[in-house]
Amino acid sequence: MSTNTVDNKRKVTTRRLSEMKRRGEKISMLTAYDYSSARLLDEAGIDVILVGDSASNVMAGNVTTLPITLDQMIYHGKSVMKAVNRALVIVDMPFGTYQGNSKEALASAIRIMKESHAEAVKIEGGSEIRESIERILCAGIPVCGHLGLTPQSINKFGTYTVRAREEAEAAKLIEDAKMLEEIGCFAIVIEKVPAELARKVAESVSIPIIGIGAGGGVDGQVLVMHDMLGINTGFSPRFLRRYANLAEIIDGAVKNYIADVKSSDFPNESESY
Ligand code: KIV
């Protein structure tokens, strides 16, 4: 049983995340795409809510994150923002909205901030998209980087297995992390890389490193809420810890409801007007 050290009132900001890293306080992050889930996460005291483009898989049933649009990310971001008082909310920049050129990247980030009211954006990639990130940062928009396994590049990688096992890719990842810190990103998500490499990155930069499948030597952890609550049961990578089995609970509840309707047990007199 872990002790709850969460300060449940003070608003989480990008500045506060950097203080947390300095103090050695781990950062908790989960995904949410809708008002009701975001409200539950915020009330439980989560530090950061990521409106991830994993909404493409989890909400829309797509095989990859590529199809989700800017309008759809803004819709999810707006729904989450209405529910949240304390957590910092970051919205993912979807595939195709920042790679073309930095002007397009800035226009996409501005739409996310203006229309969803989110507090920051997350963007996948390193040196290849430096100019786009710099332009977004120049507009005063906080940017969280994303290195390692970057799911928007799945068609280039061809697999979702662990990244940066080879020396050259590991060296580039460290270089990219240092570059993202230098240009002004406030944090970096590092996905599915060896734990030792992730620890080295966290020690090499002063901004928080949030890991997913990146071991315990980083400054915080992120998981997809539907995976850790056991709503999505078809995905069981080694890094995933399930904190509930909601699929089983929902299945039982729905079966009981069906039986009650069929037997005319529901509604009873006290449930009727
Ligand atoms: O889209 C997402 O949910 C993400 C997390 C897996 C980090 O980027």
Word description of this protein:
- By secondary structure, the protein is an alpha/beta fold.
- It contains eleven helices and eight strands.
- The protein has helices at residues 14-23, 35-44, 55-58, 70-81, 102-116, 130-138, 154-157, 167-183, 195-204, 225-228, 246-262; strands spanning 27-31, 48-51, 88-92, 120-124, 143-148, 187-191, 209-212, 220-223.
- It has an eight-stranded parallel β-barrel with strand order 1-2-3-4-5-6-7-8, surrounded by seven helices.
- α9 (195-204) links the parallel β6 and β7.
- α4 (70-81) packs parallel to α5 (102-116).
- The longest helix has 17 residues, at 167-183.
- The protein is globular and about 65 Å long.
- The chain starts with 13 loop residues before the first helix and ends in an 11-residue tail after the last helix.
- Residues 31, 50, 52-54, 92, 189, 191, 212, 222, 224 line the site of 3-methyl-2-oxobutanoic acid (KIV).
- 3-methyl-2-oxobutanoic acid binds at residues 31, 50, 52-54, 92, 189, 191, 212, 222, 224.
